[in-house]
Amino acid sequence: MLENFLEKYNGCVSVCADIWSDHWRMHSYIGVTCHYMNNTWAIQKIILAFRVFDDKHTAANIFRHLRIIFTEYKIENKIFAIGFDNASNNTAAIPTLIELCKPYLGGSSSSSSTTYSELESYLSTSFEFIEDTEDKKFDILHWWNEHERYFPILAMIAKQILSTPVSTVAVEQQFSVGGNILDPKRSPMSPKSLQIQACVEDWTKAQYRQQEIHQEEPYDFFKDDQPAESQTDNRGND
Q1: What is the distance of C-alpha 161 from the center of its chain?
Q2: β-strand 28-37 against 79-83: which pairing, if any?
Q3: pTM of the model
């Protein structure tokens, strides 16, 4: 289960959140994606929620929905960064989210002697970097994967920073998937079924590292989730 994995994950995660409205059933949805680094320094992205959000899009309601999601996945104290677009209601929710997500989000860096000693060692070490060429470019994630054992504290900080998304594109991609799922044929689909469809598709692709593969026609997990009166027979008659 994803909840168990995130609860046991020994590190911080970053999240992106945004709100989308469909044009068929006129529901709004809040989407949340989780971003983190695995043990081999590969950046991971997975959907946490794609949930109906028909309340007013106020800062208080955004905070309430995100708090529920973070609590369900037990990551409220593991969040390093939260990404929104610059809508005023989103930015207004940030102060209360910072309070919820302490000690990591908005917290101070460690100033222990161990960290200072490791930083001094890092700064005084001469590294050989391979210059960029057309055939081979410097891979910062690969570099940290090879040097993590020498600088474990700095590597932990690097994991948090390097896995932080710089935009809300990840969530917007899921809204695009939602739009593909909720086409004229599937417009009667319930909000709960749409959430399950979007999450299961993303989790399945994440398992096989296929999330970036474009798919014109997503597999319909709920092809029979339609009111009886909306279905047609093989001849196309009602």
Answers
A1: 15
A2: unpaired
A3: 0.75
